[in-house]
Write a structure and sequence with these properties.
CATH superfamily: NAD(P)-binding Rossmann-like Domain
CATH topology: Rossmann fold
Oligomer: single chain
Number of helices: 9
Distance between the termini: 68 Å
Pfam family, one: adh_short
Strand content: 5-15%
Family: Belongs to the short-chain dehydrogenases/reductases (SDR) family.
Number of domains: 1
Helix content: 40-55%
Organism: Chitinophaga ginsengisoli
Protein name: Short-subunit dehydrogenase
Keywords: Oxidoreductase
Amino acid sequence: MKNNSKVWYVTGASQGLGLTLVKKLLESGYRVAATSRNAQNLKQAVGVIDTERFLPLVVDLNNPDCVNESIQQTIAAFGNIDVVVNNAGYGMMGAVEEIAEQDIRKIFDVNVLSAVNVVKGVLPFMRKQQSGYIVNVGSVAGFVGAPGWSVYSATKAAIAAFSEVLALDVKEFGIKVTVAEPSGFRTGFLTENSLANINTGIEGYEAVKAARERYLAGNGKQPGDPDKASAILIELAESKEPPLHLYLGQDAYKRASEKIATMAAELEAWKNTSISADFQ
């Protein structure tokens, strides 16, 4: 199979959407550098050993030196990096007062700071080549949250805000940015681990408890198709004008559009109060 021109760098590639994307990229002839915490698990999951097109990397995404080394390895192997997909991340559900501080810091480290580290590492190369495409995988939860997902939603809201301003900063270099914001996909994301920290000893929080039961009951039945999402991401990378925000899944579209309408109505209802805060 001939190589397609673009080189992809994908984080969190040993499972979920990242794994599906890497497989589809390799099937399509792209060259792919993929990161995981365990190289053997990554190789087994991908099932392709082709050193000409596939570079599995063990990377601690919260260690900038390790990230930079992996980027240098990718450049050495393939010559450049055209597309970065910051996919690494995980979910966590629970009432905020029950979630330990170290767990909050950890999820921000993985879901937010790791993406920032990768972007910081790759930008010097993309600026030099005056091109590039960065896809940060967020979530519809970063815009429209559900009960019990406050900390997780905060990490994904941070990714969305980071992506928005990053797009402004790097536009002059020919670099494009998209934040992909899916709803429920059948990727193994929704596990007991992500739903475990909830209401073990606090009375109330009925909305959170009910939401947890709904998510558990729907696990494995999510409407989102990771194969289709991966195909969309590949198509976006070939687009001249990819969107800044892309909601993936009918549920994501519905939730986002309803919130936008609600926000617009509230903004107008409180317009006079808003503008009254200025000096007259």
